Amino acid sequence: MAKDMEQLYQERLKRYVTAMRNEKPDMIPIRPFVAEFTAKYAGYTCQEVTHDYEKAFAAARKCAADFDWDAVVGNMVYVWTGLTQAIGMKYYAVPGIDISPNIGFQYIEPPEENAFMKPDEYDQLIEDPTGFLYNVWLPRVSSDVAAEGQPSLYRNNLSFLKGGMAMLSYFNAFGKQNELLRTESGTVSAISGILKAPFDIIADKLRGYLGLVADVMEQPDKVLAACEALMPHLTYIALSGADPSKNVPIGFWMHRGCVPFFSHEHFNKFYWPTLKPIIEEIWAQGHQVLFYAEGNWDAHLKSIASLPEKSIVYHVDQGDIFKVHKVLGERFCISGGIPNWLLATGTPDEVRQYCKKVIDGVASDGGYIMDASAIVQDDAKIENIKALTDFTREYGVY
Amino acid sequence: MSKQKKSKKKPGVCIPWEEKKKELPKISGDEQLVRKVWQDIDALGYMYIWQCLLSF
Questions:
Q1: What is the pLDDT of residue A84?
Q2: Within an 8 Å CB–CB cutoff, is residue A167 touching chain B?
């Protein structure tokens, strides 16, 4: 049995990697990014899979064992709120504490006046990003970390010890989880490592979206310099978590750097020039990046097309997957495009029809990976996920 | 990294070895060993804050 499972794993890995290199595998790989859906399927609450990562891991493995999927993320309910609560992070609404145990965790962006970085602090960030994060950012986002010059008390000291130990234990547990996925169900771990764009990070975690909107108009040179200062660090972190065997891509989560959140001019001035060199560097070191294009990035496809051939996998959320295929399909593998609303409200027949439309439109020459548009939460119907899976297996054979 | 600007503060480093070394007495043993262990553990501190920013 173990040998058969390893054989299945190798077949799936070959299928997944072949598609990601924009080539034609034996059949279309299926790689659903299932998050709170795993809780629904395995009989857990959102609170359980968010706050207890062992339950999240178990739910992910149960799905991987029961569905014929080639690759999954070991835990797509990625934010372990046990850790964030232990260090007093303020920007999460935690299921079972701040919100219902049946609702997925929420990110809370503070009001503009309470942004975690003030508009006159760019120089500090630019001078020493790591020092700024420790000395300025962390005390603001954590109720348990003392700011510089403040008394360091019991809880302040504990925060770093607990946070560091918890992070190590969580990240180390992914190693065992990936091994169990391989040996129990022959499933590939879909991504390795994390990347976010400098411009997105400033909006998400530092200045807030509204703060950054003001800054690009009022102090554009500072914004650009801050993005540039973040680049080497984000590159380093991305590469430090990359797959040593260079099979699976680094996950790149794209947030609010696109039209209409920002203009074309701002994208071209801030977002793209401080992202593209990171992707080129990562590719030069032999790693692909999965562009998880949350929202609609169709306005920027020409820029994305300028990246080195095969350097990325482009995941389609709200964008027009047929347009994406037309612009990017010659150069990169594409994934996704099955609307989450359809998985939540449609019928299995409607899901099958939509999958057929996407496969017919973009997958005929390979270079396509079946997935929902966005991360699959607990609104998706189980019968619709089964329909997506079974139809792709039947119809997606080359 | 050729297209990226050189930062004053290197990635992977919180407290550079050169700065720590000034605090130590003359190292009679294997300095490279002391340096490597310092840098390896210092990198964990670096990883912690950047993962807090990116992953959590």
A1: 94
A2: yes
The torsion angles phi and psi of A103, rounded to 5 degrees, stand at -115, 140
Domain count, chain A: 1
Backbone angles phi, psi at A108, to 5 degrees: -110, 115
Does residue A216 lie in a domain region?
yes
Question: What total of structural domains would you count in chain B?
Answer: 1
User: pLDDT tens across A156-182, in order?
Assistant: 999 999 999 999 999 999 999 999 999
Please state the ipTM of this predicted complex.
0.96
- Could you tell me if residue A152 is inside a domain? no
A166 CB-near residues (< 8 Å, 6+ apart): A80, A82, A83, A86, A87
Residue A317 structure tokens:
């959320």
Does the beta carbon of A306 lie under 8 angstroms from any beta carbon of chain B?
A: no
Q: Which of A128, A167, A240 is the closest to B9 by Cβ?
A: A128
Q: Tell me which residues of chain B have a C-beta less than 8 Å from any C-beta of chain A.
A: 1, 3-14, 44, 46-56
Does the residue B8 lie in any domain? no
CATH number at residue A378: 3.20.20.210
Write out the two tokens for A199.
């411009």
Residue A129 in this model has a pLDDT that exceeds 50? yes
Provide the residue range defining the domain that includes B45.
17-21+28-55
Q: Which residues of B touch A135 (CB under 8 A)?
A: none
A357 domain-assigned: yes
| B44 contacts A277? CB cut-off 8 A | no
CB contact under 8 A, B5 and A231: yes
Q: Does B36 have pLDDT greater than 70?
A: yes
Closest listed residue to residue A294, CA positions, set A258, A341, A342, A333: A258
Residue B49 lies in a domain: yes
A7 part of a folded domain: yes
Residue A217 has pLDDT above 80, yes or no: yes
Q: What is residue B9's predicted lDDT score, i.e. its pLDDT?
A: 78
Q: Distance (Å, rounded) from C-alpha A61 to C-alpha A81?
A: 20
For residue A291, give its domain range. 2-84+174-395
Query: What is the count of residue pairs from A and B with beta carbons less than 8 Å apart?
Result: 84
Q: Do B54 and A201 touch (CB under 8 A)?
A: yes
Confidence band of A250 (pLDDT split at 50, 70, 90): very high
